[in-house]
Automatic annotation (TrEMBL):
Superkingdom classification of source: Bacteria
Protein family: Belongs to the SUA5 family.
Main location: cytoplasm
PROSITE patterns given in the database record: YRDC (PS51163)
Alphabetized UniProt keyword annotations: ATP-binding, Cytoplasm, Nucleotide-binding, Nucleotidyltransferase, Transferase, tRNA processing
Function: Required for the formation of a threonylcarbamoyl group on adenosine at position 37 (t(6)A37) in tRNAs that read codons beginning with adenine.
GO MF entry, a single one: L-threonylcarbamoyladenylate synthase
EC number: 2.7.7.87
Catalyses which reaction(s): L-threonine + hydrogencarbonate + ATP = L-threonylcarbamoyladenylate + diphosphate + H2O
Protein name: Threonylcarbamoyl-AMP synthase
Pfam families to which the protein is assigned, alphabetical: Sua5_C, Sua5_yciO_yrdC
Length: 332
């Protein structure tokens, strides 16, 4: 059932559903989440079951404000606090050392916890309402509301399509950011970028004075992030990434038969193929992120079997979009 997330009655109903241990489709500024009370192990187990997600992939705990951090994290390094001050509420998740009894099922028993304070007004209203309940719900675990390995949802309709009408979904409109939050591991003394997103490597460096390392620059490490599995975010069609010249050659070779092929391009292209779908990618990275997952879903819906995408620039602002496209291509 989809409820209007802008109505107070819907927000209250959603908070009480979370308190009872039920699941909720929750809009955030990045993507829609499949939410449950972080400290209710049975409720959290339902998230893993509904998504078909392996239990050793930890979930992000969403909090109403930075005061709630102390319920989940043992300590907050100085550079992490600077990132919180700069980017919360917003699309940034921090991995912090976990308090022993907090969010156990949600973190798969790992000694760290992922915390995020979303900026979407409906998410903020739900999290605030949760804190006012008796007993309160302090943290809300929410992975993206898609089946494991699939494209993340950016509208309430995507969530209902994926999980059916029995799930309560708050409609908060189309997501502004469109790709999942940036994840920074703050448990290693220096910031480590686990998943790129709208908060870029450059933004992080400006806020805390430290250039984040990539996972690959670290010695062998344990936490596993499903957003970091190579084949992820995959549409049904096969995705191929090409530069502008390769893309034009592929179209030239193709000739006149273009059905089942969708092209997402940045440079001007020529094609005489019949039935081909050509869509231009927005010129700005933030705009491209916003429409990325919806576009992949549209291509699936029109029956594309091949999706050819022009590789975005190799700059920090495009890192999040590039990352999601590379994963989608690796899945094929
Ligand atoms: O934008 C987002 O972050 C969205 C919205 C709903 O907030 N959520 C989201 O959740 O993308 P999910 O579960 O699809 O991705 C969370 C990622 C996973 O790859 C998970 O493994 C990683 O965060 N993660 C969570 N806790 C972690 C931890 N303690 N250590 C390492 N990685 C962690
Ligand atoms: Mg996900």
């Amino acid at each position: 059932m989809i409820l209007d997330g802008n109505l107070d009655a819907s927000v209250q109903a959603a908070a009480r559903a979370l308190q009872r241990g039920e699941l909720l489709g929750l809009p955030t500024e990045t993507v829609y989440g499949l939410a449950a009370d972080s400290d209710n192990d049975a409720a959290v187990a339902q998230i893993f079951a509904a998504k078909g997600r392996p239990a050793n992939h930890p979930l992000i705990v969403h909090v109403a404000d930075s005061a709630a951090i102390t319920r989940y994290a043992k300590e907050v390094p100085v550079f992490a606090q600077q990132l919180i001050d700069a980017f919360w509420p917003g699309p940034l998740t921090l991995i912090l050392p976990r308090l022993p009894h907090a969010a156990r099922a949600s973190t798969g028993g790992q000694d760290s916890v992922g915390l995020r304070c979303p900026s979407h007004p409906v998410a903020r209203a739900v999290l605030a309402a949760c804190q006012r309940l008796e007993p309160p719900v302090w943290g809300v675990s929410a992975p993206s509301a898609n089946k494991f390995g699939r494209v993340s949802p950016t509208t309430a309709r995507h969530v209902a399509d994926e999980f059916g009408d029995a799930l309560l979904v708050l409609d908060g409109g189309a997501c502004e950011v469109g790709i999942e939050s940036t994840i920074v591991d703050c448990t290693r003394g220096v910031p480590v970028l686990l998943r790129p997103g709208a908060v870029t490597r450059d933004d992080i460096e400006r806020a805390c004075g430290l250039r984040p390392l990539s996972k690959e620059e670290l010695p062998a490490h344990t936490p596993r992030a499903s957003g970091t599995l190579l084949a992820h975010y995959a549409p049904n069609a096969k995705v191929r990434l090409m530069d502008a010249r390769q893309l034009q050659s592929a179209l030239d070779i193709l000739g006149s038969e273009g059905r089942h092929i969708a092209v997402y391009h940045r440079s001007p292209l020529r094609s005489t193929a019949q039935g081909i779908t050509l869509r231009a990618m927005p010129a700005q990275a933030l705009d491209a992120a916003r429409e990325l997952f919806g576009t992949l879903r549209d291509f699936d819906e029109i029956g594309a079997r091949l999706i050819w995408i022009e590789t975005p620039p190799d700059t920090a602002d495009w890192e999040g979009v590039r990352d999601r496209l590379q994963r989608a291509a690796a899945a094929g």
